[in-house]
Each structure stands twice: as structure tokens, then as C-alpha cells.
Amino acid sequence: MTPAQLAALRDSLPPFADVGLVPAQLQDYCRFYGLDFEARLPRVHHRIGSVTAGPYTLAVQCWLQPGASANLLLVHGYFDHAGLYGKLIEFGLLNNCNVLIFDLPGHGLSSGEPAVIEDFGDYGLATGAVLEAAGPSPDLPLWVMAQSTGCAALVEHARRGSWPFAATVLLAPLLHPRGWKTGRLLHTLARPFKTGLKRKFAPNSSDPQFLDFVRRDPLQSQRLSLVWVSALKRWLADLQLANLGVGPALIVQGDADQTVEWRYNTRAYCELFPNSRIEMLPGAGHQLANEAANIRGAYLAAVTAYAQAAGVPLQARGFAQG
Which of 293, 128, 73 is nearest to 205 (CA)? Predict the structure, then answer.
């Protein structure tokens, strides 16, 4: 798709509550990003619309299926958007879940300056707004999987005292980026003179097809925002590494992650989510949502077992085509 087509889709999103309104560009969007599950999986219904969260208009998508046994919320990472999370959406659908995902402020089809946030608290507010306005089937158990910055969004959501999740899975959670000590100094020196730096697309997955696609993705920001880094610094300075009071999580982490300081971050998240279990993945990079199939298969088996042990009734579905 072209940037103009994506902008037209963004501008035509109806309020999420307006059931039945389908933007003209939606079919092309779903095909382009491989989200055309409504066409590929029988009885799956796709909804898309917008939800307001403070100054932001968020793009929200949900896939519903009759007889679902659970609801799954996905929260993406920095520079990502819903279009890149087809593998995890499909995982949820094949395990009999309704799946809800939204684009964080400044990402994908949501409003906001690309890849910019003034306050990490806005990520938590966005999560709460989506759950309140678009959460599917409230009678079913809800669980969550988040990647990197999406984990920070969940921390902010928890700090506001609301935690509806029966099971929590954190993929390569963000606190300190790699080289944070040096990065903070460089940010302090550069911030008075620059608002952003040219983005370098790191090889953060062992899936070459994904790495090639993301470089061509028209929804990718080409700059690293120093405003975002400033917000991260303020968030870290304010965050107390103490029990959030929302229970444990499954923390999934690759030992080849060159994006975050994963040794520090996994320890810190265990303080935020005491009694968490850490699942280490040999050879896995940072972009766990889009790692190679063998790596995804290994950790998703652990995710399934963890969610089921937490009381989420996942059920592998064999969709009969036709």
C-alpha cells in the first residue's frame, strides 16, 4: 500500500462502536499486512475503528469468533503497529481467542507525531481507553501479551490500579535500551540541537523476510525521536522498582537481543511482577513477535502452557476450510 492509501484509511476509520461501517481501504490493508483472517479462517469476523484516548485517536482492531473461550489483548513495541503482529494474532485465533490489538499513539494508523510520545503515561492511558471502549466478550477471561514498549504501557496501566488480566506475557520488556548509560549522555548533548536522529534498521530478528518487509513498510518511522527518549528518561526516573500488585508474569527473552539491556531489564521486571518466570530463548533477537518460526514455536508453547496454568482456557482449533 502507498502512504496516501494508508492516510485515507486512517482518516476514514469510524468510531469503534459503529458496528458494520467498513472503510474502503480495509481489504487492501489486510492483504498487504497479512491480516486477512476473515477470508482465511471460517467464522472469524474482523472489526476496525477508532477510540479516543486524551488527545489521541487510536486505531483499534478486533477479530471475533463464535464459541471463543478467551480474549487476548496484544500490545506492540516501539516503531511497530498492528499490521506487523499477524503471527501473534493468528496464534490467538488458532487457540480459540478473540484478539484485540491497537496502534499506540504515534504508531501505525493512530494519530500523533510518528514514534513520538511526551509522557509514557499516555501509553497506559491508551491501553485503558481501548479496554474500556473495545474489550470483547466481558464474560470471557482476558489475558495479555506485550512486546518491549508495550510492556512499559502495561506497567503504566498497572500503576493506575486496574488489572483485568488473568495471565500476563512480556516479550523482551523495555526498561533500559542497550548502551543506556552512554545513550543518556549523548541524548543530553544532542537534545538542545536536534529533535531526532536517522533511524538505523537493526537486524533484530533471525527472519530475513520480516527484516526485508519492515524496511519497506510505509508505516515505519524513519527517525528515532529524541522527544521519545526524553520521555523514557523521565519515566525511568519516576518508576519505582517495586511490586505493582498485579501478580506474576511470564517474561520471554532472547539472549541475542541487541536492542535492550535484557539482563538488567528481566531482573527489574521481576521486581515489578514478583514470582515471575523467565523463559530464555537461545539465539533469539529483540523482535520476538516476528522471530523465525522455530523460535516462535518454542516460546509460544511455553506461553500456551503458562496461560493454561493461570486458568485461561486455550483450545487449539482445527479450522475446517470452506
Answer: 293
Q: Which residues pair with 142 in a beta bridge?
A: 71
Amino acid (one-letter) located at 130: V
Identify whether 319 is part of a domain.
no
- What nine digits make up the cell of 10? 486512517
Residue 309 class from Cβ within 10 Å (0-12 exposed, 13-18 middle, 19+ buried)? Answer: exposed
76 three-class SS: coil
Whichever domain contains 167, its CATH number is 3.40.50.1820
User: 3-state class of 16 per DSSP?
Assistant: coil
Q: What is the DSSP letter of 67?
A: T
In the chain, the number of structural domains is 1
Q: Report the C-alpha gap between 315 and 322 in whole angstroms.
A: 21
Burial 44-62 (b: 16+ CB within 10 A, else e): bebbbbbbebeebbbbbbb
pTM: 0.94
Q: How do 223-225 and 196-198 pair as beta strands?
A: antiparallel
What are the pLDDT digits (tens) for 164-178? 999 999 999 999 999
Placement of cell 530475513 in the chain: 208
Range with the poorest average pLDDT among 133-142, 147-156, 234-243: 133-142
